[in-house]
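Full entry
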Amino acid sequence: MKLEQSTPDVNWQRAFTFTIYGTSVLVASYFQLYFSHLGFSSSQVGYLYAVGPFISIFSNMFWSMASDRYRTTKKMMLLLFAGQLGMGLLLSATSSFYAVFALITVFYFFYYPVFPLSDTMSIQTAQRHGKNFIVIRVFGSIGYAFFALSIGYVLGLLLAIIIAGACLLLATRLRDGVKTNGQKMEWRGLWNVLRQKEVLWFFAGVFCLALPYRMNEAFLTLTLKSMGASEGLIGWSLLAAALSEIPVFFLLSRFGERFKELPLLALAALMFALRFFLMSIADHPGTVIAVQTLHSVTFGIYYVTAVRYITRIIPDEFRATGLALFTIVWSSAAGLVSGTFGGVLYEQTGRTTFYFIAAGLALVACAGFLARHLLGNTKVPGASMDSRKM
């Protein structure tokens, strides 16, 4: 149902989504460079990357369950960005590995839950105003592209502090979503949903695909650095990836419903395998930037389709928690494994083997999604079937 005067509500959500991806650029790519500038080894960088996903396993569930339980996402957002702001200030004055390890652990506790909660608010805002979720989420890609380029020229932890402060101010203008069915979250109902084989199979496929994605994310900037790329060129590589997914988002918002989710996920996984294979043979920063444009048919297809699928198989009253579980599998658990063992693998075997293994894992995910599709019915009793606006 479309409400009157919906534009300010939607636009504040778009502005917020645009801004939070500035922090995403820093954490996903430039924190690794920042840590290397402090003199930390590749293994130490891997451990610092891995501790975030480990902590986020608990923090995502804590904040998202609290959001579902108390039916407020906005207040959780305000607390999260206040925490990020405080930890960023402390990190900017620290250079000891053990002190950085302790502070970044707390920073990640406040950082990771922002994204599933933001997606929850975007979905609720889109439903409230009769819009497609993608017309809000695409501003995250635009924001990522903007910050990837600008941060490439102005690298510093100070930016993380500034962005967190801006997000805190924008969060005050957001509007909490309205539950569509009025049901309260019950633990028993959540457990019954999570036991469904369709849900378990989906999360297993997501994990297999997330492992190589997080391996690439953690060590892409270091790979470019080893090829002699400047920080500005690294920014252009991130920009190429972010811009490439935008037209795919728009195409899927118009035509995506014509295709079933699982075949689309299998296609995305297959293209991920191709992307990582090309990374294994790339020998020049310019080639890596060209490969980055495959982000369009890898992450672009995967993300929109995965969110659409999970909103269909997870009931509305568990939406924040369901998206948190998706984030835990896609980001936290996979990031923990890829950060811990990926650093050692990259250091011991080199880039070529590192990306060969990543391509193989993507092929396993492709086979899993395709097998689930061929097995048939993906209907989950009690799940929301109103995914047309997703």
Summary: The CA atoms of residues 211 and 334 lie 5 Å apart.
